[in-house]
């Protein structure tokens, strides 16, 4: 088999999607459906952030589509006054792939959860990432099954006691960021439901990315897994644990920026160190555009399942042709090369005539 | 000889044709089977002979038989590949029950196929492969070519490999490469025996090996050597002519079911002026449809090889949501995986074409063999009440019409449609009267463009229905003012919002059923030439050929019999109940354990006899003839 260099120009994530000059507000993106998540659910904050961030893209509302799977988070499309499909458990990325490939004029968003994306739909997620379909995937991670009322999920910490695991869960959890980077996702980011500012920044960057953007959003489920991320929100703890990434800036954190991420010269492993001990020059300057995903992967390993450290922001944002652009280019080239002569196709090369 | 019509073939003895040394006999039909090791190129040989027969104007039908294993050891029984071809001077319906001529390239091919050759049949054997070792490999104690066990047949012993190598001596090819052309030697010999035109094959070989002209020349030399061998040696005293068939006038080509299906999908997109999106995952015997469609992107066809069966149908449904003709192709195991998404298509009422090229089941079953056992899966294989229209083509060429028809229903009624082909017609081929494109009726799609709320609110109600078809509007993303959300949860009638209301659910379940029940389906036609038959045979799908051929045989025996063949399995034709009641007995032959019979008995309270076979092979006309005559005698007694 031969590989063909498709040599596409770099384009923005929203190229081809019609825009509008009309002023839009969050209200324009609010459907008439009553929002039915439990009171205090982190999904509300994410919904609010998405509704109020979309107007700044200036897209025509009818050219935005939200596709979801099944789970609490997957109710999301009903609350958006755009086109939407609430599909089947785990399958949203595949449905969105067909939609995105056949419609370059749409901005397609996938809303999914830890069970939907990583358990039943794990296969579709990694293949969307590998193909780099032009989808924005928002993965609400609450580390629990909410809709089915409280079983452990593929991101639950080992030993999680739930209805289905009264003696504690046994399986090692996924780190969604590591997983996405392992699939060579071209845009991988993490944000917290409670940090509107960073969430909005990440969403904006995702929208502008051409290809699959995976955004993991830590989301609290007050009913079945309350406080799962509290340590990341408490003053004092927050500063010590959250490692925010900013492209081009040294990776420092702590109340006074006293910690930094450094690379071990011998092993290449990334580690957290006191800046005072290693010196400012030793602190790694974040580069999200590195082609080799192993750097971003190493960043994703800085935090464990106990959230001792949690890296947030854009881990990786690199340019690679998106599957849908490539697929459409092939169709366009075929059309240009050969007219669509149905009669000629049906007749083929070898015909005979009965008179 | 086993004739489609139950008669002996018309044979007229004659003198050698001018320029020919052998006597020429005229036949009305011949069945040839090429059999060899899977590395011997039997499929190509069969294909080429088929093209020659087609170009000559015969009617024909073919039956390839692939080994189940990807690469069985050379010279073993599991490695045998064969290709059967039936060609005639009249319209035939099947590839023939048994070969009249068997070409066996090695002992394994002889052993695996000899049982099908009737006494008196012609056997052409490549003697070079009949070594002690090869004979032992397939369990022959002695050499069947020497021990008299083939006395019942007319045996031609030809050292094909040696002769081919001899003919290619000058070419400078290695012995091994030269020997590979022996299938073309066999083709040349058979082409001589049956007076086939040769230009097509020579042209084909030049094109196929355009990048390797020395291989092309070697194959042509081998082909000519085979021809000349027949002409110059005395071992073949007779050659045969099968005159062109008197088929309806028009332009013909040869086509397999899978190619016809792919063309039907391309045509449907063109007729509906919609892009086609195929989401598919490789699976035998459906992959050829994916391969074929992948070559026709110039018709606005996108092919997506998904990560699994579920993603294949999911992407197709996503494309349908976006306004394309979404298609997925698969076989039984894949259909099982797609059920949930097909259910979503039922619920969201979006057009979707699902093609199941059935194979032997359950589970992985017999991937390369044919069966019709997915009918009930197609009918009922989803959770909840999830009805959808089902269409089954009856022959290779019919796959084209069936695909267009299935797409028309999907687009008109906004519903998933299941098309049930099978391995027999998918891989088999026959002449196809190529349709005139201008005469194919366009498919009207009509996307929604305006708000439709009956209350004048200016809202868009995605589940408001066309009173005629009960189809809901297809409003694709990008249409301003029609933003809406659909999904797998139950919908409120009209407005389409989520609804858990019990009465609404009851109503919606019944509406979805009524929509499918109301799909316009033509009455089933009954083939009952005398109009006074007692026995009606009801078939569906690929059994059309064998049933039709068996009915002809029964009639030749002076008995009457009627045949109704169902193309639409859901909904069933409106006149079917009356048709069934008109006959004293009804028999339903199927390559499953009686799935259509069960539906007919349940629906019409008809005491249908179910005749079944699940051997991975199509029915033989001969066996059905026996079944039918027994029943007729029983009714008369
Ligand atoms: S169960 Fe948890 S995740 Fe689901 S809506 Fe309620 S709070 Fe939110």
TrEMBL record, chain A:
GO biological process per UniProt? cellular respiration
> Domain named Thiamine pyrophosphate enzyme TPP-binding: which ranges?
70-217
Q: Does the keyword Cytoplasm apply?
A: no
Pfam families membership: TPP_enzyme_C
Write down the CDD domains for this protein, in alphabetical order: TPP_OGFOR
Please provide the record's keywords in A-Z order.
Oxidoreductase
MF GO annotations: magnesium ion binding; oxidoreductase activity, acting on the aldehyde or oxo group of donors, iron-sulfur protein as acceptor; thiamine pyrophosphate binding
Q: Which PANTHER family match?
A: 2-OXOGLUTARATE OXIDOREDUCTASE SUBUNIT KORB, 2-OXOGLUTARATE OXIDOREDUCTASE SUBUNIT KORB-RELATED
What's the protein name?
2-oxoglutarate ferredoxin oxidoreductase subunit beta
From TrEMBL, chain B:
Gene3D superfamilies given in the database record: 3.40.50.920, 3.40.50.970, Pyruvate-ferredoxin oxidoreductase, PFOR, domain III
Record-annotated Pyruvate flavodoxin/ferredoxin oxidoreductase pyrimidine binding domain positions: 274-492
**Which GO MF term does the entry hold, naming one?**
oxidoreductase activity, acting on the aldehyde or oxo group of donors
Q: Which GO terms describe its biological process?
A: response to oxidative stress
Q: Where is the composition biased (Polar residues)?
A: 1-13
NCBIfam families per UniProt: OAFO_sf
Protein name listed in UniProt: 2-oxoglutarate ferredoxin oxidoreductase subunit alpha
Q: Which organism is it from?
A: Streptoalloteichus hindustanus
């Amino acid at each position: 088999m031969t590989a063909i260099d498709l040599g596409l120009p770099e384009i923005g994530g929203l190229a081809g999607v019609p825009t509008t000059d009309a002023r839009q507000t969050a209200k324009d993106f609010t459907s008439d459906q009553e929002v039915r998540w439990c009171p205090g659910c982190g999904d509300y904050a994410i919904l609010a952030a998405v509704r109020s961030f979309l107007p700044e893209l200036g897209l025509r509302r009818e050219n935005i589509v939200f596709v979801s799977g099944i789970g609490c988070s997957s109710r999301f499309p009903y609350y958006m006054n755009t086109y939407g499909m609430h599909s089947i458990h785990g399958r949203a990325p595949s449905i969105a792939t067909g939609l995105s490939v056949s419609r370059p004029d749409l901005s397609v968003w996938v809303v999914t959860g830890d069970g939907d994306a990583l358990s039943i739909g794990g296969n579709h997620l990694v293949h969307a990432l590998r193909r780099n379909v032009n989808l924005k995937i928002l993965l609400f991670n609450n580390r629990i099954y909410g809709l089915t009322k409280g079983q452990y999920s593929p991101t639950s910490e080992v030993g999680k006691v739930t209805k289905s695991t009264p003696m504690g869960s046994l399986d090692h959890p996924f780190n969604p960021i590591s997983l996405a980077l392992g699939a060579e996702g071209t845009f991988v980011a993490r944000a917290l439901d409670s940090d509107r500012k960073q969430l909005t920044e990440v969403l904006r960057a995702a929208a502008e990315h051409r290809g699959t953007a995976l955004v993991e959003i830590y989301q609290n489920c007050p009913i079945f897994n309350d406080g799962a991320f509290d340590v990341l929100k408490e003053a004092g703890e927050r500063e010590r644990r959250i490692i925010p990434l900013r492209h081009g800036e040294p990776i420092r954190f702590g109340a006074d920026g006293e910690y930094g991420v450094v690379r071990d010269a011998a092993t290449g492993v990334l580690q957290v160190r006191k800046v005072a001990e290693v010196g400012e020059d030793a602190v790694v300057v974040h580069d999200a555009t590195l082609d080799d995903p192993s750097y971003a992967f190493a960043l994703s390993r800085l935090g464990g399942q106990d959230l001792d450290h949690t890296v947030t922001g854009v881990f990786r944002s690199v340019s690679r042709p998106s599957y849908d652009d490539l697929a459409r280019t092939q169709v366009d080239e075929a059309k240009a090369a050969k007219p669509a002569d149905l009669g000629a196709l049906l007749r083929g090369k070898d015909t005979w005539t009965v008179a | 000889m086993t004739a489609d019509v139950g008669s002996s073939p018309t044979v007229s003895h004659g003198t050698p044709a001018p320029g020919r040394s052998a006597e020429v006999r005229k036949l009305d039909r011949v069945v040839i089977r090429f059999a060899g090791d899977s590395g011997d190129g039997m499929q190509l040989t069969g294909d080429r002979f088929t093209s020659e027969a087609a170009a000559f104007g015969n009617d024909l039908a073919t039956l390839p038989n692939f080994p189940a294993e990807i690469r069985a050891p050379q010279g073993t029984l599991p490695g045998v590949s064969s290709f059967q071809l039936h060609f005639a001077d009249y319209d035939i319906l099947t590839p023939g029950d048994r070969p009249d001529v068997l070409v066996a390239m090695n002992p394994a091919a002889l052993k695996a196929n000899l049982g099908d050759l009737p006494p008196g049949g012609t056997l052409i054997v490549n003697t070079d492969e009949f070594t002690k070792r090869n004979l032992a490999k397939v369990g022959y104690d002695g050499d069947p070519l020497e021990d008299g066990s083939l006395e019942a047949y007319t045996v031609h012993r030809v050292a094909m490999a040696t002769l081919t190598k001899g003919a290619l001596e000058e070419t400078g090819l290695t012995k091994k490469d030269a020997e590979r052309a022996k299938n073309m030697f066999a083709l040349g010999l058979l082409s001589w025996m049956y007076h086939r035109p040769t230009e097509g094959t020579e042209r084909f070989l030049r094109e196929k090996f355009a990048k390797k002209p020395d291989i092309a020349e070697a194959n042509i030399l081998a082909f000519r050597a085979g021809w000349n061998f027949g002409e110059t040696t005395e071992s073949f005293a007779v050659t045969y002519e099968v005159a062109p068939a008197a088929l309806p006038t028009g332009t013909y080509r040869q086509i397999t079911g899978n190619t016809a299906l792919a063309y039907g999908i391309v045509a449907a997109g063109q007729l509906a002026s919609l892009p086609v999106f195929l989401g598919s995952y490789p699976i035998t015997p459906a992959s050829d449809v994916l391969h074929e469609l992948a070559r026709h992107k110039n018709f606005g066809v996108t092919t997506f090889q998904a990560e699994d069966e579920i993603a294949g149908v999911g992407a197709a449904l996503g494309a349908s949501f976006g306004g394309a003709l979404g298609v997925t192709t698969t076989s039984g195991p894949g259909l099982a995986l797609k059920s949930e998404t097909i259910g979503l298509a039922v619920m969201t009422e979006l057009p979707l074409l699902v093609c199941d090229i059935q194979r032997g089941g359950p589970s992985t079953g017999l991937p390369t063999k044919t069966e019709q056992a997915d009918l009930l899966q197609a009918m009922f294989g989803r959770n909840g009440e999830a009805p959808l229209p089902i269409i089954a083509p009856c022959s290779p060429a019919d796959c084209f019409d069936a695909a267009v028809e299935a797409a028309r229903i999907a687009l008109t009624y906004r519903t998933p449609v299941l098309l049930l082909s099978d391995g027999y017609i998918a891989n088999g081929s026959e002449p196809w009267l190529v349709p005139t494109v201008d005469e194919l009726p366009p498919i009207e799609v009509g996307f929604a463009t305006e708000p439709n709320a009956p209350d004048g609110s200016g809202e868009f109600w995605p589940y408001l229905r066309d009173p005629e078809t009960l189809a809901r509007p297809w409003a694709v993303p990008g249409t301003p003012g029609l933003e809406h959300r659909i999904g797998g949860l139950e919908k409120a009638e009209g407005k389409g919002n989520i609804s858990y209301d019990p009465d609404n659910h009851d109503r919606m379940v019944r509406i979805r059923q009524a929509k499918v029940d109301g799909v316009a389906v033509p009455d089933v036609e009954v083939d009952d030439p005398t109009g006074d038959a007692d026995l009606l045979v009801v078939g569906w799908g690929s059994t059309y050929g064998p049933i039709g051929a068996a009915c002809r045989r029964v009639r030749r025996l002076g008995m009457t019999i009627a045949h109704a063949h169902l193309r639409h399995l859901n909904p069933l034709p409106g006149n079917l109940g009356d048709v069934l009641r008109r006959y004293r007995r009804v028999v339903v032959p199927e390559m499953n354990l009686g799935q259509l019979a069960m539906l007919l008995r349940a629906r019409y309270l008809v005491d249908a006899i179910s005749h079944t076979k699940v051997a991975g092979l199509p029915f033989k006309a001969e066996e059905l003839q026996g079944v039918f005559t027994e029943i007729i005698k029983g009714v008369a007694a």
